[in-house]
């Protein structure tokens, strides 16, 4: 039996995934959470084989939540999923320690296959994503820029794009404010811009809004 914990801010999504998984003989949903606070309280009580973690889970962003799970519950495998573009977030989440990445548009069979594969300790990405990663050099320019960014730089950019100031970004990621300024300067250099407005426009091109 594969024990699964679902972390998603939308009740209807949690209910739908729960019904699909519980209708499959080798799955059991042992809990669900709508925020990161709920998620970590649950992880203190139960030991899921796989956590299905929404990228935009409230309170702490998905990648920071993933890192905390890896640190505090190292035996728990995380399958990230999001409505956001796969070719933007998948690389970052896998670099941060996720065992797989799914788009919310994936078929039900894909979800079931992904959880089974991750539960066995294997990586899972969709065939479409694998093809996009393989032929990334042939895609539009922002994608090539994105490949230069580290996972932490993506986190900083996403928070800046959401309207947060340096101090708020520093608090959200548990960084020094000066370090955030350094990341911002590095992002501007890597994305070939020289001001915050252009940086955020580039973030929009990367679908980080």
Characteristic terms for this protein:
11 helices, phosphoprotein, alpha/beta, 209 residues, 5-stranded parallel beta sheet, single chain, 54% helix, NreC/VraR/RcsB-like_REC, 5 strands, Response regulator transcription factor
**Relative strand content:** 5-15%
| Rg computed from alpha carbons, rounded to a whole number of angstroms | 17 Å
Separation of the first and last Cα atoms: 38 Å
Globally, the shape reads elongated
Q: Could you state the order of secondary-structure elements as H and E? A: EHEHEHEHEHHHHHHH
Low-confidence spans: pLDDT under 50, at least 5 residues? Answer: 134-145
Tally of DSSP helical segments:
11
Strand tally: 5
Main sheet properties: 5 strands, parallel
Give the overall pLDDT as a whole number.
Answer: 83
Q: Classify the helix fraction into a percent range.
A: 40-55%
Strand order of the largest sheet: 2-1-3-4-5
Structural class: alpha/beta
3D architecture notes:
Keywords: DNA-binding, Phosphoprotein. Residues 142-207 form the HTH luxR-type domain. This is Response regulator transcription factor. Residues 3-119 form the Response regulatory domain. InterPro entries: CheY-like_superfamily (IPR011006), NreC/VraR/RcsB-like_REC (IPR058245), Sig_transdc_resp-reg_C-effctor (IPR016032), Sig_transdc_resp-reg_receiver (IPR001789), Tscrpt_reg_LuxR_C (IPR000792), WalR-like (IPR039420). The protein is α/β, with parallel strands linked by helices. 54% of the residues lie in helices and 13% in strands. Strands 2-1-3-4-5 form a five-stranded parallel β-sheet, sandwiched between helices. Strand 1, helix 1 (11-22) and strand 2 form a beta-alpha-beta unit. Helix 8 crosses helix 11 and helix 9 (166-173) packs across helix 10 (177-190). The chain is elongated, with a radius of gyration of 17 Å.
């Amino acid at each position: 039996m594969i024990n699964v914990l679902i972390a998603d801010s939308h009740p209807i999504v949690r209910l739908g995934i729960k019904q699909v998984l519980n209708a499959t003989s080798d799955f059991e949903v042992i809990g669900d959470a709508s925020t990161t606070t709920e998620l970590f309280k649950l992880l203190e009580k139960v030991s899921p084989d796989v956590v299905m973690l929404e990228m935009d889970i409230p309170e702490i962003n998905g990648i920071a939540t993933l890192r905390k799970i890896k640190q505090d519950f190292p035996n728990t495998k995380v399958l990230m999923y999001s409505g956001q573009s796969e070719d933007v977030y998948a690389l970052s989440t896998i670099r941060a320690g996720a065992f797989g990445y799914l788009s919310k548009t994936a078929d039900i069979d894909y979800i079931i296959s992904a959880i089974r594969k991750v539960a066995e300790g294997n990586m899972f990405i969709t065939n479409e994503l694998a093809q996009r990663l393989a032929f990334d050099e042939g895609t539009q320019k922002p994608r090539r820029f994105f490949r230069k960014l580290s996972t932490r730089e993506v986190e900083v950019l996403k928070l800046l794009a959401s309207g947060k100031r340096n101090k708020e970004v520093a608090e959200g990621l548990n960084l020094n404010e000066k370090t955030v300024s350094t990341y911002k300067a590095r992002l501007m250099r890597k994305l070939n811009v020289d001001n915050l407005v252009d940086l955020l426009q580039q973030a929009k091109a990367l679908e980080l809004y």
